[in-house]
Amino acid sequence: MMKFEFAKVPQTIFGSGEFSKIYELIEVYGANNILLVSGARSFRKSRQYIELINIIKKRGINLYETKVVREPSPDLIDDEVDKYRDNNIDLIIAVGGGSVIDTGKAISAMLTQKDSVMAFLEGVGEGKTHNGKKITFIAVPTTSGTGSEATKNAVLSKVSKDGFKKSLRHNNFIPDNVIIDAELLITCPTSITIASGLDALTQLIGSYLSTHSSAMTDSLALSGLEYFSKSFMSVCTEGYNSIEKRGQMAYGAYISGITLANAGLGIVHGFASSVGGYFDIPHGVICGTLLPEAIKVNVELLRQKNDMIYLEKYAKVSSILTGCNGKDTIMSCYKLIEILEKWVEELKVPKLGEFNVREEDIDRIIKITSNKYNPVQLSSEDMRRILVGRM
After folding, report:
1. Which of 114, 105, 156 is nearest to 134 (CA)?
2. Which DSSP string corresponds to 264-287?
3. Is the dihedral of CA 50, 56, 62, 63 positive or negative?
4. Which of 17, 89, 129, 353 is the most buried (most CB within 10 A)?
5. What distance in Å separates the CA atoms of residue 219 and residue 188, rounded to the nearest whole number?
6. CATH topology for 11-184?
7. Contact 310, 375 (CB under 8 A)
8. What is d(CA 374, CA 290) in angstroms, rounded to the nearest whole number?
């Protein structure tokens, strides 16, 4: 008998023009003091932003705003929590990319606590257990990437030679509501569309190939990959203003958040955590640049083990992304690697060396890199091959 556990998902509103449902949710929650967390770019120039601000003010609701311009750090979260601790915030709305949503999620969790967020961070904190109390939280993604709108963790970073990228995590931190409106994605810059899309793709593949996957996460991941394959390259090139294509990508990203939360991820996200703590590199860029090389090493090792279960899974992903339903499993695996290498090249995804990652950094990166759910256990030398291949 199969066995698996599956985390709850947020109440989700999906569709073009559905951002207007935010007003109904504000009414439902009876909010008096709202904190709006958003990025500093396109959303603040949109008609949706102007309408939101005007309606909140007309209803006599107190509105506070926080701008997010980079991946959140523990210091940022502590500062924002201290700023709003005495304002009786009863609803937080985060409208933006993964960094914005993670910031809103972390503030929501920490406004109920007296400690610094560092006390609760996995692996680097004081080991305290958060009680799960939070401020009501609504997530509205404006990029298609991290899937943070569907997860129970907020990723916080401290970038330095002793840096880290770690999670604040609790089952209750899953957003209470999610609104995914493709109209908010149209103005997403191409560079961010590419990086966030590669993040979502890595999460879909990683969760599908995870040793912790289940029949349920597999079915969802394949569904996400189907829609992603119909839209990604088009949106990154000529179809950037297509509501339909943007919606398909948004669906894939949302599903990637659900599947990663329930299946875990492999070596690429292990590297994204370790490399991202040491170097100021966009998360999606790390994922995208390492994905083909990581699959290549995985496939070679799986062939040596004659592990057809995971090789056939890679072949299934290949059939979706390439459109070729080859009968030769191994050949299909290499076609997957080929198309990913082609995408990375065509989209000009930077290599690690362009961010001053050097071979002398590899040992310290490998030392803290997890490959817990990777389909095959990797040695230090295997991990080195992946990194060197994208230097």
Report:
1. 105
2. ---HHHHHHHHHHHHS---HHHHH
3. negative
4. 89
5. 29
6. Rossmann fold (3.40.50)
7. yes
8. 14
Q: Could you check whether 11-184 and 190-388 share the same CATH topology?
A: no
Q: Which two tokens stand for residue 62?
A: 């107190």
Domain map (residue ranges) of the chain: 11-184, 190-388
Domain 190-388 has CATH 1.10.230.10: no
Q: Directed axis angle between helix 190-208 and helix 215-235, to 10°?
A: 160
Question: What does the DSSP 8-state code read for residue 353?
Answer: G
Distances in Å between the alpha carbon of 241 and those of 232, 247, 391?
12, 11, 33
Considering the entire predicted model, what is its pTM? Answer: 0.95
Task: Give 158's strand partners.
Answer: 164
Nearest Cα to 375, choosing from 321, 316, 323, 288? 316
User: Which residues does residue 137 pair with via DSSP β-bridges, in sequence order?
Assistant: 92
Q: What CA–CA distance (Å, rounded) separates 110 from 76?
A: 12
Per-residue pLDDT of the chain (391 residues; tens, 9 = 90+): 688 999 999 999 999 999 999 999 999 999 999 999 998 677 888 899 999 999 999 999 999 999 998 899 999 999 999 999 999 999 999 999 999 999 999 999 999 999 999 999 998 878 899 999 999 999 999 999 999 999 999 999 998 888 899 999 999 999 999 999 999 999 899 999 999 999 999 999 999 999 999 999 999 999 999 999 999 999 998 878 899 999 999 999 999 999 999 999 999 999 999 999 999 999 999 999 999 999 999 999 999 999 999 999 999 999 999 998 878 999 999 999 999 999 999 999 999 999 999 999 999 999 999 989 999 999 999 999 999 999 8
